[in-house]
Inverse folding.
């Protein structure tokens, strides 16, 4: 079962990043209280990285046991590992190198040093996700443990940005990635936004998450946000596709909210 979207609007991008950071810290503490560990899927972009920096700078950050947080990425640029455009490198600088994260729990998609094609890197990432799911299944001693492990580990929170063209992760309008129904990770060759080669989780993988948080700021995103929340077809408007099983939360600033359906603003304003 997936959750209908809820919208929370903040005055500007600075306030929004602080709000995302506070919400993320609180949620991770709650998840660790329940499960002993937490898993978050990170995003790049100005909002995604800015929010991670706000987490690192928050006085409440030590409330999280960062050594028990698993980090994955929704997508990555298929470039060299030290390329400044890599989402993982930016996340390390903004947050990961500033907290007590366990390197074994930081799962970075492969780079051009390791693989010849995005497809090879995608297959490797899918294998690592499957291995993590198998380990999680083996450690589950509960009475309701499934008979067989899933293809993916438990995703507690997936963070996603949205492009002006309404892309999420590296799933772009009308391209093969957004149409993928079976695989959990795909290689991307024709990204309209440089660099053209990417690795991305697919929509079915994203939608296994307990919670999906769409983090968006700027008036150049307003059209995409409005279309997504109006229920557009995800093939044309990929941002319309993500749905958390328990919650789908749009955390946006006032500039990005100018075309949000009014009933959703009333529903989510809190």
């Amino acid at each position: 079962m997936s959750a209908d979207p809820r919208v929370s609007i903040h005055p500007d991008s600075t306030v929004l990043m602080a709000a995302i950071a506070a919400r993320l810290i609180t949620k991770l503490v709650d998840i660790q209280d329940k499960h002993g560990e937490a898993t978050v899927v990170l995003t790049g972009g100005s909002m995604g990285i800015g929010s991670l920096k706000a987490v690192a700078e928050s006085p409440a950050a030590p409330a999280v046991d960062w050594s028990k947080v698993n980090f994955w990425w929704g997508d990555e640029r298929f470039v060299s590992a030290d390329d400044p455009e890599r989402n993982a490198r930016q996340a390390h600088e903004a947050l990961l190198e500033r907290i007590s994260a366990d390197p074994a729990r930081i799962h970075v998609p492969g780079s051009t040093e390791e693989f010849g094609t995005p497809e090879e890197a995608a297959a490797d990432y899918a294998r690592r996700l499957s291995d993590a799911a198998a380990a999680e299944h083996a450690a589950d001693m509960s009475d309701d443990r499934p008979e067989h492990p899933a293809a993916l580990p438990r995703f507690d929170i997936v963070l996603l940005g949205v492009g002006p063209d309404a892309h999420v992760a590296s799933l772009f309008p009308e391209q093969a990635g957004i149409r993928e129904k079976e695989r959990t990770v795909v290689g991307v060759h024709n990204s309209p936004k440089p660099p053209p080669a990417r690795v991305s989780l697919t929509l079915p993988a994203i939608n296994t998450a307990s919670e999906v948080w769409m983090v968006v700021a700027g008036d150049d995103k307003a059209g995409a946000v409005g279309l997504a929340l109006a229920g557009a077809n995800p093939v044309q408007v990929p941002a319309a596709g993500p749905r958390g099983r328990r919650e789908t939360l749009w955390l946006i600033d006032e500039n990005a909210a100018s075309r949000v359906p009014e009933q959703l603003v009333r529903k989510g304003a809190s």
In short: The CA atoms of residues 5 and 17 lie 19 Å apart. Residues 5-209 form a domain with the Rossmann fold fold (CATH 3.40.50.1360).
